Amino acid sequence: MAAFKRYNDKSKLRKQLSNRGAPNVISESDIQFIEKSCRIVADTISLIEKYIKPGIKTIEIDKIAEDYILSCGAKPAFKGYRLTIKFSRIASAFQ
């Protein structure tokens, strides 16, 4: 998995986000929240990569991902989305 660039200059990050039409990031806590969220997603993908093998069911991968996300104190964004989309199907789009 590629290393993620960490911004030391938060004003540069704010400027780049503004230039891309992203909503204004107003505070340091907003940036910290975004960083934490992205780290949880990256760690989740790294975790499930270890379990992806022929014969494993996507529901099993979803359960592993959900358990990890909940253990981080976060809420899985894929949970209940259109009732049929699974995290593993979304992740497989990035392969």
List keywords for this structure.
95 residues, mainly alpha, 4 helices, elongated
Describe the structure.
With 95 residues, this protein is mainly alpha-helical. It has a domain at 28-92. Helices cover 55% and strands 0% of the residues. The chain has helices spanning 10-19, 28-49, 58-71, 87-92. α2 packs antiparallel against α3. The mean pLDDT is 75.
Distance between the termini: 11 Å
Q: Output the radius of gyration.
A: 16 Å
Q: How much helicity do the residues have?
A: 40-55%
Number of separate helices:
4
List how many beta strands DSSP finds: 0
Classify the beta-strand content into a percent band: under 5%
Q: Please, what is the average pLDDT?
A: 75
Low-confidence stretches: none
Shape: elongated
Structural class: mainly alpha
Order of H and E elements: HHHH
Summarize the biggest pleated sheet: none
Record the SSE blueprint.
Layout: H1 10-19, H2 28-49, H3 58-71, H4 87-92
Write a brief structural summary.
This protein is mainly α and 95 residues long. The chain is 55% helix and 0% strand.
